[in-house]
Amino acid sequence: MNVTFSIEAENGQELLLVDHYFFYDMLNPNYSADERKQIEQAIKNYVPQLIADVRSVNERYKLFIGKYAINALQLEQDNSFKRVVNAYLNGYMDFFETKSFFSSESDPEPDDIASCELEFYRNFVRQMKASGSEQRAVLLTSHPNAERLADRLIDTGLSKVISFSPEFGFMEYKVVAPEEGDTVYLGGNPISLQRRIGGGGEADIFELVPGKLAKIYKTVPDLQTHLPNCFKFQQEIRRRNERLDVLLNDPRYQVNDRYIILPQYKLTDANGNLVGIVMDQAEGILLVDIITKNIYPFEGFKRSDLLTIAKKIIIKLKKLHTHGIIMGDVNLENILVDAKSPEDIKIYIIDLDSCQIDGFPSMFETPEFTDPVWLQEREAHGFIPRTIENECFTIAILLFNIIFNNVHPYQHPTGRNLQDNTRKRLYPYKIQEKDAEFIKEEFGVEVDPDPNRNEKKAPTLANYTHSHLPRYLKCMFYATFASQGKDFRPSTEQMMKGIDRYIFHIKKNPASDKMIYDNFAIAEPYTIHFNCSSKNCQKDYYYHYNKVLNSFRVNETYLYCNECINIYDTQIKKWLNDESLPEAERQAIRAEWEASLNPQNLEQLLHEFFSNPKKDQSGKEKFEMILMAKRKTYSASNSGHAARPQQTIHRARPVSQNRPQAHKSTGNAGAGSRTQASKTNSQQSGKSPASSRNSQQPQGLFGFLKKLWNN
After folding, report:
1. Most-buried pick from 36, 178, 654, 656 (CB within 10 A)?
2. Averaged pLDDT for residues 343-365
3. Is 435 in the same domain as 300?
4. Taking the complete model, does pTM exceed 0.70, yes or no?
């Protein structure tokens, strides 16, 4: 018989209660005759023996049953059943009055017990504590009752709920919260948990011995009911135990790679119940910290190093696949990076004890990394195994997150639901018409560039990143993530090929080897470099020469970086066009804004560009025609005048009808939301936007808004 619990009774630490359900299980019609015989054996033989063993250290130890439960048992007419109950009452069990534990101050009728038994246990435990008792109440009940009420019974304050089922033997349900110093057992030998070094939703990680860690499973309250999830936890422990028996002993799953951290041994409690696993210790930085917190493993860390990490991750996951292992829960938190230099980069795949092997589907997932095809099949048919193709879709999402600095392929700045976007395949990045043939040749998928792509918007920084990708990666991501009526899943080989193409592209274009892109990719022969016109910024930035040429044509004076364009578009322009503000107020804002800017000499910038033979010369004729037209206009309008008129400045921004809004690298809130809040606050306080600014800002309006942006 499966013995999975014991009673701490030497000093009466645990008070063992029993209910009528425990005995009634002998008569459960849902069990076969053989199953009822097993239950009868447990009740007649095992529990009495347990009490006898406990009495060797505490001779007065007994089970206790409430009077209301005895009343229910007396209704049963089966003689053998009565003999069992009477034998317990005569030798192993005592009853106690229970009226005072019910709000009605009377024992409930048998048919009413189910509606008020939780009230009984809650009041019973409360009274135990009020009396100063340090005992912990434990309940022995039937398996069907534990399945129905275990979590709610634990929630009343009971320390444990114990049940017996013919299939699993005795099962113990309790809140599990491992702590430093707890004793666990490795091969029957006790060992103490050392310093806790981390943990997540399902387990905590402790140092065990040098070079080895213990992963100890724990209960986690249900997010909706807030109940302790003890019954579900035991079900998961049982599945884990069965999976580990195969994973640790089947030669197919012996990967023998020190950078793939698979379980090595089981850890149990004193009764042999699985509590955790032993695994090798891995050193490094979590990939999620590199991607989301910009915590880099070494000085001078570049995008090419990040791509090397991505490729090594895929190599390790491919190795798992060759051994018949599907990781299942692939995400940024299950990968450690140990790197000292570009030449010394190692990655560890961790958290593999829940991986999928033959006969044991992976039961855990990170929703935003889940293949929607697998998700739809699971919802239709229940929990089903993942395929390698499902996992490759998940790996593609991981690769996208790595390359795009924690941006999901279906992430839109509109705030739409990410999982809904994923189900609908709302991929917001576009390809060229000519790329469709490339995708067909390279990936065997027929696609049409999305005619509605302009209705989907990608985050600005992600759009910048997308423009820097080599064609192969752009097309692979489009074939994978865009809705085409046919699902494509890239292989690990195709993903590694895409990374190699990107690394080669960076070697040819060293300027693109940086972690954060703040502009669209423009080949050097077409770029004009300048310093942002904002005095508080003056960031080195670049445009395509055609953009500068168009600004010169319409007499614009200022050129901005991406952040300052966003400030102008989202705030300054609104204030200047806000007719609710007095004209004098808007003129004051205009004057202060203009004082914050350095005019650009666009003519000189263009002269220098076209004087450089390494730059593209195809626009030179257009520049000379614009220059000639300006000079004719100047001559005609200045006959008899001594001075040249000032250039128009009211359109103090580059002309671009489809300019994307710039976002900070955190990717959550743009300048517009912050500066609009500033405006709202000033209006609520009765002050205008101009008068609400701190007079200590020497660089004017842009300085004020730039400070808000940076904060």
Report:
1. 178
2. 92
3. yes
4. yes
